[in-house]
Design a protein that fits this description.
Shape: globular
Distance between the termini: 38 Å
Structural class: alpha+beta
Strand content: 15-25%
Number of strands: 19
Largest sheet: 9 strands, mixed
Length: 528
Amino acid sequence: MRRLLLAGAAALALCGTAGMASAQTFRWANDGDVNSMDPYARNETFLLTFTANIYEPLVRRNRELKVEPALAESWQQTSPTVWRFNLRRNVRFSDGTPFTADDVVFSAERVRAQGSNLTAVLASVKEIRKIDDFTVEFETSQPNPIFLEEITTWTMMSRRWAEANNATRSMDLTSGQENFATRNAMGTGPFVLVSREPDRRTVLRPNPNWWDRAEHNLQEVQFNVIANDGTRVAALLSGEIDMIYTVPPQDTDRLSRAPNIRIHQQAELRTIFLGMDQARDELLKSDVRGRNPFRDVRVRRAMNMVIDREAIRTRIMRNQSRSTNLMIGPGVNGFVEAEDRIPRPDIEAARRLLAEAGYPNGFGVTMDCPNDRYVNDEAICTAIVPMLARIGIRVQLNAQTRARYFAEILAPRYNTSFYLLGWTPATYDAHNTLYNIMASRDPSRQRGVFNSGGWSNAEFDRLTDAIAVETTPARRQEMINQAMRIHADEVGHIPLHQQTVVWAARNTITLQQMADNYFPLRFVRVGQ
């Protein structure tokens, strides 16, 4: 009911502003909000892409997803482990203060400090050195062939602004903490934050002193939260908004036939998967006492055997996904089609495995699921409940908004037993997923930060470390294949699919759709 009321309020607010919008006002909507204006608060695509309109990295992605200069105008490797960046001169933050090496060093300290959810972005870095006001060096512990790709999502913050507003540390969203940077922002990027109403509307305007040449023609950007699918689609069709970031699969065909509406669609790099707590001796949310059924590989294999990915693809996703049994998909460096072997559903074999594991009558467990994060996330979880029930696993579904959901599964103690999650490797390389999602949790190395289930395998970890420094492509690929086979055999997670990115916009809108679901406003134009 609360979501419906919020959706209704958002729609009424949009009606009130529709007539006032100028040709260069861009109004867009999503089913969920950006949970913070702090770019280090959560390693989540929507938060990172939104804040990247205000804050900028040293190097960024262009329209073709290639790395290009941003706040660093050039760089060199002075040794196999040292990267020197020459900063762009005459860049200023939107408050007028100059951007210098001090801000880079500060941003490195802040992103690695407690409270940041992006600690892994500099996991390979041993030391950051200021050479002069416009030169910085990063020294890695070992050669890192994908270092540039790793830092494309790490944006620079102003030391002076953070210190003046007591925001030198990022606040942990899982605990509900806030500071000045949670609701305010000040960067060097193409847009500045004008107003912020959480769960309702956020307004941006162009930064008049941006260092780069503006390709957009926007005078104002209004981002609106409309949780209800039907209300969001109706707002686009009526002209109250110009673009929908998340299109419900069931509405794609109708929107494609609507006059003045254009569908933007392509395969996404994100993999949607299920995770299971394999770390605790006893599950937090289960009726099994004194043991953890997910620690038995036979239980995990049985679950993998009854998940009908094809049914999810055709009935839930309306053919807007690619089924998988790997944690990476096409477009990610290291993916090999021949390695992606999807098991056929086999209920009888799965029942036998459960019985062998000591659960002939199954067991009960709670499944944590978001309802406003991924395409049809709650519907996917709802469909999985009866699939598992066929072998006696009784699932109680706990679907929540992304803020509450992430607070559970990404809490310091990972307060979940069974969950659905999605991951896009920011580097477009397999190692990013191996290191962050699949490798054993090791806080001292910022490894496995998002391995909420705690799956662990020593040989897999050894391969992950070797892949990080291997520079011979063929040898590196074979190690990736070996790691993926270990994970698939042990069913460390249950991959489901790579979802399709589907946006919808009025045909007067020009935009750039990215395979990583980033939405850079600097490429948006409003016109006839």
